[in-house]
Design a protein that fits this description.
Layout: E1 6-9, H1 15-25, H2 28-31, H3 41-50, E2 58-65, E3 68-77, E4 82-89, H4 98-112, E5 117-123, H5 128-134, E6 138-148, E7 160-162, H6 164-174, E8 176-183, E9 186-193, E10 197-200, H7 203-206, H8 209-218, E11 223-229, E12 241-252, H9 253-260
Parallel strand pairs: 4-5, 10-11
Antiparallel strand pairs: 1-2, 2-3, 3-4, 5-12, 6-11, 6-12, 7-8, 8-9, 9-10
Helix pairs in contact: 1-3, 4-9
């Protein structure tokens, strides 16, 4: 087990090991429904790292012992808070305080950039939630990840697909993408994961039957993954099944740093 280790910014050459650690840190049911479970995720990590010092919204910190990757955190900079988007530690890091150190350094970076709040999502059943709550995070939202087959039906008279060719190019590199869909009844952002899923994070498109018909016509082999707050009302006739769930944990950076000392 590596005993001496340090935390530093990730470089492009670290992307492969970060991707490998993600693959072993999340169970297949979780990984297959996330961006970093897509086949081009290593390319995505490389591209994010390449621009992290040139205004990119993501910054990767890694813990290393010798040549071994012990853990990483992706810090996503948003308008009014930072998101600890992904955090994982290797088996060899257990008991070394790597997770705590990565979180502390991530929050310190956020504080240096004048952020006051941080949040992190954890899947149902992940016991790390208990640690987060002990140091000042609170559950503010609950998300249900629900899946269903798309219904077939008549297409609406006006369909506008925005940035679909660009999305196809991105999809070929990363394995995920998104494009815009505009109908007379509304405008929507549609995500795609791998070859199996359309991804929706707002109930508006899930409840718009015309939009669902368009998606079914566009790529008939895909199913729909809805990631919405627990309170969201979805159409009962589509027979959604819950496949995962997650909690949103939020906290004040100063308060959490005090608890991490």
């Amino acid at each position: 087990m590596a005993r001496e280790w340090c935390v530093r910014k990730a470089g492009i050459d670290d992307a492969e090991n970060i991707s490998r650690l993600i693959n072993v840190s999340f169970i297949p049911e979780q990984r297959s429904l996330c961006l970093y479970g897509c086949p081009g995720s290593e390319n995505y990590i490389k591209d994010l790292i390449a621009i992290q010092d040139r205004g990119g919204d993501s910054l990767f910190l890694i813990a290393v012992g010798g040549e071994e990757l012990l853990g990483f955190v992706e810090i996503r900079r948003l308008a009014d808070s930072i998101c600890l988007n992904y955090m994982a530690t290797a088996e060899a890091a257990r008991g070394l305080g790597v997770y705590k150190r990565l979180m502390k350094d991530a929050l310190l970076l956020g504080k240096e950039e004048s952020y006051q709040k941080a949040f992190h999502d954890v899947f149902f059943g992940n016991t790390i939630r208990d640690f987060h709550e002990r140091i000042g995070y609170k559950v503010t939202k609950t998300f249900l990840w629900r899946a269903t087959d798309l219904p077939s039906g008549m297409l609406p008279p006006r369909i506008v697909l925005t940035n679909l060719p660009q999305a196809d190019v991105i999809h070929s590199r990363y394995g995920f993408s998104q494009f815009g869909l505009t109908l007379d009844t509304g405008s929507f952002t549609v995500g795609r994961l791998n070859t199996m899923w359309f991804r929706a994070t707002a109930p508006t498109i899930v409840n718009n039957r015309d939009a669902l018909h368009v998606l079914k016509h566009l790529e008939p082999s895909r199913s729909l993954l809805s990631i919405c707050e627990q309170e969201a009302v979805l159409p009962t006739d589509l027979n959604f099944r819950q496949v995962l769930g997650s909690f949103r944990l939020e906290g004040e950076i100063d308060q959490i740093l005090t608890q991490l000392k």
